[in-house]
Amino acid sequence: MRKTKYVFPAFSFYDRTGIQDYLEKQAQNGWMLEKMGGFGWKFRRIEPKKIHFAVTFFPRASMFDPGPSEKELTFREFCAHSGWDLAAASAQMQIFCNDRENPVPVETDPMIELENLHATARKVYLPTYFMMLLLGIMQMMNLISSWKYTPLDVLSGHIYYFNALCFFVLITMCAAELTGYFRWRSKAKKAAEDGLFVATSGSCTLQLVLVCILTAALILLLFSFAEPKMAVMFAALIALIFAISAVSVGATALMKRMNLSATANRIATFALILFLSFAVAGAGTMGIIRAMDEWWPRDKEVVIYEHNGITYELYKENLPLMVEDLLEVDYDGYDCHWSKRQQTLLLGYSAAYQLPRLDRMDAPSLQYRIVDVKAGFLYDFCLNTMLASNQDAWSEDIYGNITTDEYRQTDPTPWGADAAYQEYNGDNAHSTYLLCYGDQIIELEPDWELSEEQKAIVGRKFG
Amino acid sequence: MPRTKFQTLTEQMFYILLCLRQECYGMDIMDKVPAMTLGRVHVGSGTLYNLLEQFLEEGMIRETKVEGRRRSYILTQKGRETLDSEYRRLCARVDDYRSIFGEEEEI
Fold first, then answer.
1. CA distance B79 to B66
2. Bigger pLDDT: B18 or A274?
3. What are residue B14's phi and psi, to 5 degrees?
4. Secondary structure element (H or E) that encloses residue A387, with its range
5. Residue A67, φ and ψ in degrees, nearest 5
6. In contact, B30 and B82? CB cutoff 8 Å
7. Is any Cβ of chain B less than 8 angstroms from the Cβ of A113?
8. In whole angstroms, what is the distance from residue A139 CA to residue A408 CA?
9. How many domains in chain A?
10. Where do the DSSP E strands lie in A224-346?
11. What is the pLDDT of residues A357-376, one digit of tens each?
12. DSSP code per residue over A131-194
């Protein structure tokens, strides 16, 4: 039979009622709280019995203190005098237990309890939650900006959905904690005027639901990467973040054991977090990418060549349309590569290029983007986005007239397409086309003017 | 309206100060108050610890002896005045009650 167990309980920081009830139930089931740490709460096996618990806050304490201060020890002696023994403490939160029948509570004046809790909240929890809320909102705005400039990437990229979910969870959790606390505090303050305590009810269930959703989303994301290598790299990066957090928590605990002063511990911990966040995270990420490049078996043919003393890599991937399909070319040094391949339930979005080596830039080249609209209601949006995608490109003639690139409708018949558009700048036609075949929209960019026959070949390849 | 700190006293504050008319160990107040009130009033350990700290900061009590972590306190003049003020407030309440219901209807 297990003698100890670790749990990661999800309680609101002010939810003393929830924590007390939870610990009492655990004691009745034969588990006694022994330690609260950065890696969870540790319980030890005991004879099942009725034990009362009291959650109190000691605002002067800090998570960096090497041990309890004299004042904290005096406070604990006061509690012990009335039968309340310390079960566990974590920074400001002190949890006492008492197995007497009807013990006098640790807190008998609700106003005093409220003052201590609020002093702790102002010192630690409120700034943390406000900062995380701000971070979540800033990241959400960043995502909205990505949506504004690259909507097709956002719609077709699982990572964007995952990020949006992460920041939604972060914002919801922080908002729930903050509003929950201030609502409870407002009620508790009024009741305290009459000497009454108000039970707390935190956002424990909400937190658990959100964490479950996030975990499920993370697993789905890992399985959604087009290339297993990317999934492994992403998992390695997540592991790196957890490792950095664990090292920070472990270092703080170690410095406490080494009896370092709270100030020294605080400075060293923050310095370590900064170092780990930038240097190690950066180097770690680069290391993971390089290791994967080195060790992961290549699933595509790569050719290495040198030009002007610099080594280049080129790929030999199979593309749905090649220069060779359209032209007779006596050259096999092409770099054929899918530069983007991503899809979600709403949209598939890929981009490919076939470019000659740098030492043969005169050979014809071909580039294209393929948007596969899976959710019909997005079709017009995607088409309009692609039609507008070149409007930022402009040119100025010798008279100072500015013209921008734009797509103009053209005859789709030679392409065998539902609709066709050609790019123009003023009166100059470019060899860039937008072609619609069923749910697919293709932006085709050969570096030569296509003949009618070549257009028909494109139609047969994509139509 | 929120209570201004120590302008009026809660029952627990009142009895803690009352206990400190004579020098007394802080911790012992937890036993003295129920004894004084025949078990009607109890002061929790957390509440007592915090109130003693606050009384000390306000100069309503002063430390007289420190033996390890055991500290004894005694009421100061300011503390006595606060107690007196609370006593007068309570007496005024009693007087008001009597003026309405009279002595004979007292419970």
1. 20
2. B18
3. -60, -45
4. helix A379-388
5. -170, 175
6. no
7. yes
8. 37
9. 4
10. 302-307, 310-315, 335-343
11. 888 888 999 999 999 999 99
12. HHHHHHHHHHHHHHHHHHH-HHHHHH-HHHHHHHHHHHHHHHHHHHHHHHHHHHHHHHHHHHHT
* A1 or B67, greater pLDDT: B67
B47: contact with A, CB 8 A cutoff: yes
Q: Does B48 contact A at CB distance below 8 Å?
A: yes
Q: Alpha-carbon distance A306 to A304, whole Å?
A: 7
Q: Is the pTM of this model over 0.80?
A: yes
Query: CB distance A70–B69 less than 8 Å?
Result: yes
* Token couple for A136: 């979540």
Please state the length of chain B: 107
pLDDT tens across A42-86, in order?
A: 999 999 999 999 999 999 999 899 989 999 999 999 999 999 999
Asked, for residue A106, whether it belongs to a domain, the answer is no
Query: Chain A closest CA to B2's CA: distance in Å?
Result: 7
In a domain, A426, yes or no: yes
DSSP state of A422: E
Q: Which domain holds residue A203?
A: 120-224
**Are A394 and A440 part of one and the same domain?**
yes
| pLDDT (tens digit per residue) in A409-422 | 999 999 999 999 99
Contact A78 B3 (CB under 8 A): no
Q: Which fold has domain B11-99?
A: Arc Repressor Mutant, subunit A (1.10.10)
With an 8 Å Cβ cutoff, is B37 touching chain A? no
Q: Does one domain contain both A56 and A76?
A: yes
Whether residue A41 is found in the same domain as residue A180: no
- Specify whether the CB–CB gap between B14 and B63 falls below 8 A: no
> Which residues in chain B touch residue A113, judged by CB atoms under 8 angstroms apart?
46-47
Tokens standing for residue B87: 């006593």
Residue A108 lies in a domain: no
Contact A109 B12 (CB under 8 A): yes
Residue contact B51–A74, C-beta within 8 A: no
Local structure of residue A451 (DSSP, 8 states): P
ipTM for the complex shown: 0.90
Which residue type does A47 have? E
- DSSP codes of every residue in A392-415: T-EEE-TT--EEEEEEEEE--GGG
Q: How many residues does chain A have?
A: 463
